[in-house]
Design brief:
Layout: H1 4-8, H2 13-24, H3 29-40, H4 51-66
Helix pairs in contact: 2-4, 3-4
Length: 75
């Protein structure tokens, strides 16, 4: 059974991924996704969002936006 609080706050990992996909479609996607990734460590409240999955998805979207040719090279 779900509580009233859970019903009202049903924003979870799937919604966060959808939000990130929206960021990836914007002209400033690279900056937005980089800022999201950088800010993730400072974010305190994740509630029902799986932080690891959300940040990994942001990384994958950033890679897709940048393209393989623009990825940093290993030293």
């Amino acid at each position: 059974m779900t509580s009233i609080a859970q019903t009202e706050n049903s924003y979870g990992t799937a919604a966060e991924r959808a939000y990130l996909e929206g960021l990836a479609k914007k002209p400033q996607a690279v900056a937005l996704l980089r800022n999201y990734i950088a800010a993730a460590d400072k974010r305190v409240v994740w509630n029902s969002i799986d932080k690891a999955k959300a940040v990994a998805h942001a990384h994958l979207l950033l890679i897709a936006v940048l393209g393989v040719d623009n990825l940093p090279r290993a030293a």
